[in-house]
TrEMBL record:
<feature type="domain" description="AB hydrolase-1">
    <location>
        <begin position="86"/>
        <end position="344"/>
    </location>
</feature>
<dbReference type="Pfam" id="PF12697">
    <property type="entry name" value="Abhydrolase_6"/>
</dbReference>
<dbReference type="InterPro" id="IPR000073">
    <property type="entry name" value="AB_hydrolase_1"/>
</dbReference>
<protein>
    <recommendedName>
        <fullName>AB hydrolase-1 domain-containing protein</fullName>
    </recommendedName>
</protein>
<dbReference type="InterPro" id="IPR029058">
    <property type="entry name" value="AB_hydrolase_fold"/>
</dbReference>
Length: 364
């Protein structure tokens, strides 16, 4: 179980100075209903979008999606109170990715930064099958269609129902994803197009045109119940975890804290074979009409290192843009120095600033 704090006590800027908290946080649970068709074979790389009906089966179920809601406290302007960010973690992570504990006088919390620097609220969720959200017994139920559909119900809830006493429904929801979390947001955009409940998408650590990415080279992937029998011995063997996290950081060990890697390993969670196999689904064109931004780290060992892909930002933008022909606007940013887990290295404030800028732009 991930640790939950009722509030973020301190924030730290890039110069190491500590200021009083500007963010108050509370745990929430949102019930969602999904009724989707998924491939009978969870390794179907296009998640059933190109499958014959006989190759699909129905998942009709109600799940609970757990999250931590953070809002600016009374010391910060509430001018952006009608906007909320929905933060979606990557594979083998939980919503804690967006607000890990303060480490070595640095604050790696995207939620706290958003409160302090943009006065924006955020909801960091645990995806379906992960953390404190519902975990189906059958791991093959957790595929892109189910996880993305469950995720898309959250902004609809946020726009129609008060999340907590004193927190009215929001007018705009901006989705911010990390890695496979970006993939889930991308899949929702493919399926729902102009009917998407998201008013803008910020997709990090995810490139759809990275055709030479060998995702199977990820080290340490193993069945979760074998990796940690005390914690996961009852899980379907198709739930897995990544015990070696080094590829998620820059290759230069001086650019991140070794203690953060230890925390990362201590709080690792699970993914499923379906979510892993269906990552290439994001190479399909989407009819989404809202604004889109992609943010990737120059030292991302999965997408950038060892290639020239991230050096020519204009060419990268043009390539990625082809898959979003209906988007209101589209931009790619390469954050210099950042790794795949851009929130967890010493350059985190750069991406955090970029997120706030895009949320402001998309909310106007």
């Amino acid at each position: 179980m991930q640790p939950v704090s009722p509030c973020i006590k301190f924030r730290t800027d890039c110069r190491g100075s500590i200021a009083p908290s500007s963010c108050a946080c509370s745990p929430v649970t949102i019930p969602v209903h999904v009724d989707v068709l998924v491939p009978k074979d969870p390794t179907d790389e296009f998640a059933g979008l190109k499958s014959h009906t006989s190759e699909l089966r129905r998942v009709d179920a109600t799940y609970d999606i757990y999250g931590i809601f953070c809002e600016p406290d009374t010391t910060v302007s509430s001018r952006n109170k009608d906007v909320v960010q929905l933060l979606v973690h990557g594979i083998t992570y939980t919503g804690q990715y967006w607000s890990p504990p303060v480490e070595e006088f640095r604050n790696y919390s995207c939620a706290a930064f958003s409160c302090a620097h943009g006065a924006y609220s955020s909801l960091a969720v645990d995806a379906l099958g992960v953390g404190l959200s519902s975990r189906p017994m059958n791991a093959s139920d957790v595929q892109y269609p189910t996880s993305s559909a469950a995720l898309s119900q959250v902004p609809r809830h946020l726009k129609t129902t008060p999340l907590l006493p004193g927190v009215p429904a929001f007018n705009k929801v901006i989705g911010i994803g990390h890695s496979a979390g970006s993939g889930l947001l991308n899949f929702g955009a493919i399926v729902e197009g102009s009917q998407s409940p998201f008013d803008g998408l910020i997709l990090t650590a995810s490139l759809s045109t990275a055709v030479d990415l060998n995702i199977s080279s990820l080290p340490g992937l193993t069945s979760a119940r074998d990796a940690d029998p005390l914690r996961w011995n009852t899980l379907d063997p198709a739930y897995f975890t990544a015990t070696n996290r080094s590829i998620f950081y820059p290759a230069d060990p001086s650019t991140f804290s070794p203690r953060m890697v230890l925390l990362d390993e201590f709080t690792e969670d699970v993914g499923t074979v379906g979510i892993f196999a269906q990552t290439t689904t994001t190479s399909l064109t989407t009819g989404y009409t809202g604004p889109v931004a992609k943010v990737v780290g120059s030292e991302d060992q999965l997408f950038c290192v060892g290639t020239d892909r991230c050096r020519d930002v204009a060419a990268l933008t043009a390539a990625e843009r082809t898959l979003w022909p209906a988007a209101k606007s589209f931009e790619v940013v390469v954050e210099q120095g950042s790794g795949h887990d851009m929130n967890l290295d010493f350059f985190a404030e750069g991406p955090f600033n970029m997120f706030v800028q895009f949320v402001k732009q998309f909310s106007e």
